[in-house]
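Homework help board

Subject: predicted structure for assignment chain

Our instructor gave us this sequence and asked us to write out the predicted structure in token form, then describe one feature. I got the tokens but I'm not sure how to describe them. Can anyone check?
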Amino acid sequence: MTKSDHNSEKVHYICQTYVEHKPGRDGQTSLKIAKQFEYTSASEAQNRAEREAQSEDCVGADAYMVREDQNSGEVGMPSFLVRLGIVPEFDDF
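My token output:
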């Protein structure tokens, strides 16, 4: 990897929380993204997810990182740091 290739990649550290979405006509409860925060380090995202997961209205929280190619705008698959409570299946992410 050349220096210019390396500089084109940006890492995003995300904390994302979930709430339950009330059943619709089909009667099934689903998850809905409630909040999303971006941080400069993995530990900050993980700490926030741990705090958010303890709040009354939050049913689950993820902390993850994704790599973005700034030349193409392409974002890779998430790499989870922590998953707490009720969270979507990876395939749903």
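Reply (TA_rk): Your tokens look well-formed. For the description, you could write something like this. The longest helix spans residues 42-53. That's the kind of observation they're looking for.
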